[in-house]
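Hey,
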Amino acid sequence: MTHFSVLLSIYYKESPTNFTQALKSILEQTLQPTEIILIKDGTLTSELEEVIVKFQKKYPIIYSINLSTNQGLGKALNEGLRHCTYDIVARMDTDDIALPDRFEKQVDFMENHPEIDACSAWIDEFIDSPNNIISRRTLPETPEELYKFGKSRNPLNHPAVMFRKSAVIKAGGYQHFPLFEDYYLWVRMIMNGSKLYNLQEPLLYFRSSTEMYKRRGGLKYALTEIKFQILLYKIGYISFYQMLKNCCTRFIARIIPNQLRGFLYKRILHK
């Protein structure tokens, strides 16, 4: 049996109810994780702390690590990786819901495909309840397809990814680049020789909202995205023409009205 870790990062704005649902979906898997590493990214609310204490009493496989101040997702996940005992690591966000057989299917795939360093899947986006699915975030399947796809869009759904810790560390781990830590990691892994893969089925319910579309828009987000595209060009992953194309199309998408951006996001963007 393959041992594996689950890595989560939580901060004070998380909903205790959503967090509880996320933990239950992890602990009710058909294939149980060997350990759950939970990074507390800064001081949490008393309600969130109560949820953690409650679950830790019942499930000793949950280990929490405290960061004195909020470091941001990339730095928090890097700290979490240091504490993951096993090479196979599943990522999970603290407000999403994993389908019951998510880990079983991904671990089975990773066991049978040692050449793959990161495996994700499709995700179903919902508002309020998994019964209210608003879109399905599908992605190409093979390493070859994802190498090309990554030049214009994020090749993996981060909340549903499972990867080999050794390959992530070899590529430099998560690096601080707000909003794009995961995309930047996948690109560096690809350029370091890693192969990525997406199972062609949904394995996670992703919590969405109209507020999410607002956070993915505005001038600040647009300028950050331009900086990211310039970085991809400088490290040699995309051409100058591809950089210009990405900057133009995505800049427009970030500054248009929120309602229209929500439509485009569900149909085209997906970060």
